[in-house]
Amino acid sequence: MPLPFLRFRSLYRHSHTHLLTRHFMATSEPITPSNTRLGWIGTGVMGQSMCAHLIRSGYTLTVFNRTPSKAQPLLDIGATLATSPHAVASQSDVVFSIVGYPSDVRSVLLDPNTGALAGLKSGGILVDMTTSDPSLAVEIADAASVKSCHSIDAPVSGGDRGAKNGTLAIFAGGDESIVKKLSPLFSSLGKVNYMGTSGKGQFVKLANQITIASTMVGLVEGMVYAHKAGLDVGLYLDAISTGAAGSKSLELYGKRILKRDFEAGFYVNHFVKDLGICLKECEKMGIALPGLALAQQLYVSLKAHGEGNLGTQALILVLERLNNVSLPPSVI
């Protein structure tokens, strides 16, 4: 057999074996710290805690934040800082993002020069955990597919405490087999719920925000009413917490409100953005949700008063202004 042919056959076997190995890595082998490099874009209130869980689970993390100082706590526990989303993706197999607005998502993932997708190798996975437009999630998934990559929209609910405790509700849209493959990573962050094709995770998160918005309005209205009725508002909250009026919002925010603790677990500015996306989707669907519209206006009022960087529990301030009352601070 001619020597050049033997060399060609050897090269083919090596190349074919390499391709099979890559295919196996991409489809069959479970994700572990030893075979999967992770990237993280956005290390704010939520992202920092979520990323830290993955580092503590043994994964190698490369991170990016527009304000590098916000990533310092993650660097202190072993993360590596990158200079752009593109640089993060070029060193990662799976890239997570959780940023502020849909425009930020588009920039960090789809920018042809600095975006993560441009730096991602074939078979790589993008996981956007930002609350964003469902149509943008579909666009990202289509763009990823062109590069033989995958994209999952996986927004979360649970606030800063859920992020810190690893108990977030995760709403995933995209290829179900990829969501299952990512389950070892999601399990470090909370409980993943597969909701359907690309964009469906975002639709669930928007419905979640609609529910939370009206629940928060009810919570703060009940507190103002109890105060005007001469009740001890703390005792009132305890009394209703185990009945039908009990809710996660009451559990997470009732006592924070009484302590006048308005530190953001989730920013008013971001909630206004989320509710605005909800209203835009309602217009597309041709449906009217008056409770959503009212809640959005109340939160816009907070933003107009310069309180957009407070937490969503600051809605009590709007009700206090409307009724010219002030709940007494509590030390409970």
UniProtKB/TrEMBL annotation:
<dbReference type="Pfam" id="PF03446">
    <property type="entry name" value="NAD_binding_2"/>
</dbReference>
<protein>
    <submittedName>
        <fullName>6-phosphogluconate dehydrogenase NAD-binding domain protein</fullName>
        <ecNumber>1.1.1.60</ecNumber>
    </submittedName>
</protein>
<keyword id="KW-0520">NAD</keyword>
<dbReference type="GO" id="GO:0050661">
    <property type="term" value="F:NADP binding"/>
</dbReference>
<dbReference type="GO" id="GO:0051287">
    <property type="term" value="F:NAD binding"/>
</dbReference>
<dbReference type="InterPro" id="IPR036291">
    <property type="entry name" value="NAD(P)-bd_dom_sf"/>
</dbReference>
<dbReference type="GO" id="GO:0008679">
    <property type="term" value="F:2-hydroxy-3-oxopropionate reductase activity"/>
</dbReference>
<feature type="domain" description="6-phosphogluconate dehydrogenase NADP-binding">
    <location>
        <begin position="38"/>
        <end position="195"/>
    </location>
</feature>
<feature type="active site">
    <location>
        <position position="205"/>
    </location>
</feature>
<dbReference type="InterPro" id="IPR006115">
    <property type="entry name" value="6PGDH_NADP-bd"/>
</dbReference>
<dbReference type="InterPro" id="IPR013328">
    <property type="entry name" value="6PGD_dom2"/>
</dbReference>
<dbReference type="InterPro" id="IPR015815">
    <property type="entry name" value="HIBADH-related"/>
</dbReference>
<dbReference type="InterPro" id="IPR029154">
    <property type="entry name" value="HIBADH-like_NADP-bd"/>
</dbReference>
<feature type="domain" description="3-hydroxyisobutyrate dehydrogenase-like NAD-binding">
    <location>
        <begin position="199"/>
        <end position="318"/>
    </location>
</feature>
<keyword id="KW-0560">Oxidoreductase</keyword>
<dbReference type="InterPro" id="IPR008927">
    <property type="entry name" value="6-PGluconate_DH-like_C_sf"/>
</dbReference>
<dbReference type="Pfam" id="PF14833">
    <property type="entry name" value="NAD_binding_11"/>
</dbReference>
